[in-house]
UniProtKB/TrEMBL annotation:
Phylogenetic placement of the source organism: Bacteria, Bacillati, Actinomycetota, Actinomycetes, Mycobacteriales
Residues annotated to bind DNA: 29-48
Protein name as it appears in the record: TetR family transcriptional regulator
GO MF: DNA-binding transcription factor activity; transcription cis-regulatory region binding
Keyword Transcription regulation applies: yes
Organism: Mycobacterium adipatum
Length: 179
């Protein structure tokens, strides 16, 4: 049992180290991930035989967190606040996503990203449905609209992120609001 706990802790540490490093300039190197995670190269390779496997696990974890968060927020906050909080997390996630995109080959990225619209669509649908039920969200907007609109995050430069992103997310939220 101790080995399973240690293995899970090591895997989590590796993924967290990759999450931190993928947003930094330069290529994501497995040796740097192992060092940041405080594990040896052998431990890293037991969990992730290739960099692409590690990046896939990082990306999948981020998407799963966004989906889970959407459902939690719907139950805990009024619809507009739930959307605001979810968009804020989406923006933070976008920083990781674009690092992931830079870290993998185009063909691998296409394979990884192919599953995203369904998972994110489910999360966005839950948020939109709660907003519609409360009369807060436009009836003519669907999850694909929201996903496409959120792609602006890909074009916000690092030096303007802190100032511009909250304002753009507010514009997005206002655009979804029923009037």
């Amino acid at each position: 049992m101790v080995e399973r706990t240690d293995a899970a802790r090591n895997r989590a540490a590796i993924i967290e180290a990759a999450r931190q490093l993928v947003t930094e300039p330069g290529e994501l190197k497995l040796s740097a991930v192992a060092k940041r995670a405080g594990v040896g190269q052998g431990t890293l390779y037991r969990h992730f035989a290739t960099r692409d496997e590690l990046v896939r696990a990082l990306y999948d974890g981020e998407i799963d967190e966004l989906v889970g968060l959407a459902h939690a927020l719907v139950g805990a906050y009024p619809p507009r606040e739930a959307l605001r909080r979810w968009f804020t997390q989406l923006a933070a996630y976008a920083r990781v996503k674009f690092g992931v995109m830079a870290a993998v080959e185009a063909s691998v990225w296409q394979d990884i990203a192919a599953q995203t619209p369904g998972k994110l669509g489910e999360a966005v649908n839950a948020l939109l449905a709660a907003g519609r039920d409360a009369g807060d969200v436009r009836a003519d907007v669907d999850s694909r609209d929201v996903i496409l609109l959120s792609w602006f995050l890909a074009h916000v430069e690092d030096h303007e992120w802190a100032e511009r992103t909250p304002r753009l997310l507010e514009v997005l939220l206002d655009g979804l609001t029923a009037h």
